[in-house]
Recover the amino acids of this structure.
């Protein structure tokens, strides 16, 4: 009789997921993780992977950093929860003090802690409306700010993010974000910033008056949109228009923040001071915590009780965040991001020269990406199904890598900034092998 081959533990757990978890929850890979350390993870069958996804940018200090783990163990024996609104605790205010100290915002600042990036975005909008007493919010093409209903409305992608979830909240308007690799037809790269600013001015004429606009919100480098770096001068020009019209500038650093771009916050490279800054993800090293930091007068505009929540800035997440600040200082992770970025950029630029389906290599610091195309001349996006072939080959080879972009044709790097160079090169070699085996 033939020997019966038992299913792997991974396949059993994938079947359980299919049976028990909503199909609305994305599954970027088929990997089922049992344990992780720094930039490596092991699945339930013992297979090892290099992690270039980093919890979608939440693990800049790596998986299970010893300092974070120690802080959590210590905190777990002291205090798990009270709700900061009921009984305050030192960790919350200490995290606020750290954030206020590093946020690139001019003048006196205050902060509030929340659970997720989307929740922080929602509250930044509330602060802006309370302070300006205006309703209009301007977001940008290709943006991603979260999956709550307001955040979906701010997002620049309809399907699958907004499809079927309407009606959307009113008073949200969208303008053009400069995408250097894909400028509008007939617009030269050197004119892209000017074109996008003209589109914003047109929006002020046709859809929302400046004096009715509370805030503009944008990512200094678009994340889910495909790691799009805006053309030179665009962000500074937005700051100037905001100043002219009394509009607040909200910078969403959920994915770009905490060293990813080679600065602690990506907006620093623009030399621009926002009014409100949103951060999350790597602030907590995998624990759920987010924050809004802003000018004190704006942060005090909301009535007492108008912002916050039961678990926002909970003691465990605050302990993790405080460890993260210390790790960044001691291990110089901002410099590590610059070093990683140079290495990845060199490899990705070589991919651009070598492979006919790599249309663009771009990014800042360790936030780097390649955009895949079916034709370099027309820039027709490589179909999502073909992109998945490359991702599956990476997974088979022991690399976790995820996609992004309006057409789901961008491969992005979010590896921990603590990754050893040996693991970084190994991961890039696996990706290169997947690209070499791919045929248009």
């Amino acid at each position: 009789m033939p020997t019966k081959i038992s299913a792997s533990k991974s396949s059993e757990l994938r079947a359980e997921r299919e049976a028990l978890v909503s199909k609305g929850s994305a599954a970027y890979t088929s990997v089922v993780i049992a344990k992780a350390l720094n930039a490596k993870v092991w699945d339930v069958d013992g297979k090892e992977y290099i992690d270039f996804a980093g919890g979608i940018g939440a693990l800049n200090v790596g998986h299970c950093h010893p300092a974070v783990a120690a802080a959590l163990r210590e905190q777990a024996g002291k205090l798990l929860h009270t709700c900061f609104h009921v009984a305050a605790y030192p960790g919350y205010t200490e995290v606020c003090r750290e954030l206020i100290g590093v946020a690139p915002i001019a003048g006196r600042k205050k902060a509030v802690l929340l659970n997720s990036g989307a929740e922080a975005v929602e509250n930044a909008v509330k602060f802006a409306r309370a302070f300006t007493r205006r309703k209009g919010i301007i977001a940008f093409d290709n943006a991603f700010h979260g999956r709550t209903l307001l955040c979906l409305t701010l997002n620049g992608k309809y399907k699958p993010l907004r499809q079927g979830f309407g009606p959307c909240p009113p008073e949200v308007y969208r303008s053009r974000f400069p995408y250097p690799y894909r400028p509008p037809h007939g617009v030269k790269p050197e004119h892209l910033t000017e074109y996008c600013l003209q589109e914003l001015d047109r929006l002020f004429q046709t859809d929302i008056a400046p004096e009715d606009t509370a805030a503009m919100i944008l990512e200094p480098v678009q994340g889910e949109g495909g790691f799009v770096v805006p053309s030179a001068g665009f962000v500074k020009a937005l700051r100037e228009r905001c100043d002219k019209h009394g509009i607040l500038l909200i910078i969403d650093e959920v994915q770009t923040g905490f060293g990813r771009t080679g600065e602690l916050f990506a907006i620093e490279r623009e030399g621009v001071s926002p009014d409100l800054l949103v951060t999350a993800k790597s602030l907590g090293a995998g624990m759920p915590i987010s924050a809004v930091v802003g000018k004190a007068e704006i942060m005090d505009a909301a009535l007492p009780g108008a912002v916050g929540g039961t678990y926002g800035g909970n003691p465990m997440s605050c302990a993790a965040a405080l460890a993260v600040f210390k790790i960044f200082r001691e291990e110089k992770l901002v410099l590590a991001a610059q070093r990683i970025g140079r290495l990845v950029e060199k490899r990705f630029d070589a991919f651009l020269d070598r492979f006919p389906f790599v249309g663009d290599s771009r990014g800042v610091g360790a936030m780097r990406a390649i955009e895949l195309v079916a034709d370099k001349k027309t820039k027709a996006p490589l179909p999502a199904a073909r992109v998945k072939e490359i991702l599956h080959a990476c997974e088979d080879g022991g690399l976790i890598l995820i996609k992004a972009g309006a057409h789901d044709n961008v491969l992005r790097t979010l590896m921990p900034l603590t990754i050893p160079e040996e693991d970084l090169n190994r991961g890039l070699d696996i990706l290169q092998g997947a690209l070499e085996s791919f045929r248009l």
